[in-house]
Amino acid sequence: MLPLRRQSIPGTGKRLATLLVPAFLLAGCLGEQSALLPPERPADSELAPRITAVQRASDREHLRLMAAFGGEYRAPNARALLGEVVARLAKAGEGQIGAYEITILNSPIVNAFALPNGRLYVTRGLLALANDTSEIASVLAHEIAHVTARHAVERAEAELESALVTQVVTQVLNDPAAGASVQAGSKLSLARFSRQQELTADQISVRNISRAGYDPYGAGRFLAALGRNTSFRNSAQGQSSGDKRLDILSSHPSTPERVAAVTASARQIGAPGIGERDAARWLAAIDGIAYGDDPSDGVVRGKRYVNSSLRIGFSAPEGFDLEAARDMVIGVSGNGAQALRFDSVTLKQGQTLESYVASGWIDGVETGPVENLDLAGHPAVLASGKGTDWTFRLAAIQAGNRVYRFILAARGGDPERPMRAVLDSFRMLTPGEAQAARPLQLRLVSATAGDTPATLAARMAAQDRALELFLLLNGLDRNSRLTPGQRYKIVSE
Length: 493
Description:
Elements: H1 14-19, H2 59-68, H3 76-92, E1 101-105, E2 112-114, E3 119-123, H4 124-129, H5 133-148, H6 151-159, H7 164-174, H8 179-186, H9 195-211, H10 218-236, H11 255-269, H12 279-286, E4 290-291, E5 299-301, E6 304-307, E7 312-315, E8 320-325, E9 328-333, E10 338-346, H13 353-358, E11 366-375, E12 378-386, E13 391-399, E14 402-410, H14 416-425, E15 427-428, H15 431-436, E16 440-446, H16 453-457, H17 466-473, E17 487-492
Parallel strand pairs: 1-3
Antiparallel strand pairs: 2-3, 4-16, 5-6, 6-7, 7-15, 8-9, 9-10, 10-14, 11-12, 12-13, 13-14, 16-17
Helix pairs in contact: 2-7, 3-5, 3-12, 5-9, 5-10, 9-11, 10-11, 10-17
């Protein structure tokens, strides 16, 4: 598996190590591109290769895995091209590569992996980052290499663990107490191949994409894009790219090391310019795919959080960055001294808001008097709390039997003012507003003679650091000149 990283909870790394956010804060469809698809399998082929130490993942495990990553994402053009790439890799593999099932996952995470039974998975976030067919071929060849080299089997035998998917997905779906930090890490725990296994898979992938007729330098370009993506996400969160993250594994080789290794392997095959890239075809295949979070799971747009399924929205306090995690929202202030968590629970029959807040909502925090409020026509309560090192403001808003919860913690201060700001911004969405909360899309635009990266970046939907994102998505440097008539990726409403 590529050790690809998700944009983690704001303030992770150094700040999260200090905060632990704190730990109890962490307890706890659009057109032709978005529907569930049945897997495809060639009529006369079977999943390959056969394995013994690790049995094929059951259909139930496959579905549970999809649930953990937002379900299967329907992008027919991209899926067809992915299937064609795998077929070419199989033909060039001289029988070492069998038939693989490809699933596109509805997740903005940039990631890809393969199960030992031959199921391949790529996220739509990864599709958005690739810029030509050779790059995506290198990703698929890398994942296939893990299977053909039996890396997952070796790892499973060493761990005396055969139920790989069940172990990971159980963590993600059935252990809310582990919180957002575990969710960020456990989604990627399928990636825990050794450093040498990752480098081996890289070397195999370069040779295989070259034999299949693709540009062997595509692997280096994609890994470089991966490194830039990580730096972009880290700098957005006030971190250096060297900070350790919850979702990065120290056993993996660094991106620069991998880029150097695959580039050296490509040079042994031939000089740059050999092999097929076919950027135009790849870009056409991903034109219109969703970009970023799915509004049904909740999205952050600037300082505003909107959930079209729950039909609620609120804004972050001044100076906070938000990130939507599974079933929750986490926020951290710029200086790391305050942390926010939002989620929802269901009241027990006969339980009141007041009794709920007073019943020990957060272990180790003693709550004070409860203040009754009315927010957007819904009953709400606000209470204060005190822990060993933290001061808390706790708020609960009732809508039917569902309770929306806010926790705001501060070290060395009273978080009442930012909590009041959050509550003042809270509102229920109308059906029309909820329906209008659609995913952003990746769109292609043609450059004209006068266009620059800045002018095309200005055409993107509201994005922080739009120019940097435009350069990242298109694999361009800051001084790059655009080619008139060539199409480039932008993020659009």
